[in-house]
Amino acid sequence: MPMPWLRMLAASAVSTVLIGTSAVTTAAAPEPRGVRDSVHTAGRVKVAGDVLQYSWPGVYFEGRVRGTGVGVVLDDPAADYDVQVDGATVATLTAPGRTTHWVRGLRDGVHSVRLVKRNDTPWSTSSFGGFVAAPGGAVLARPAARSRHIEFIGDSLTAGYGNLSTSRDCDGEQLKRTTNTDVSYGALTARRLRADYQINAYSGQGMVRNYNGSSPEVNYRTFYDRALLNVPGDVWQNPGTWRPQLVVVHLGTNDFSTPVNPGEPWTDESLAAAYRSAYLGFLEKLRKRYGAATTILAVGTGPFAGHVEHVVRERTGAGDRRVRFWSLDTTGLDHAGCHWHYSARDHRLLADRLTALLAGLPIRW
Question: Is 214 a catalytic residue?
Answer without folding.
Answer: no
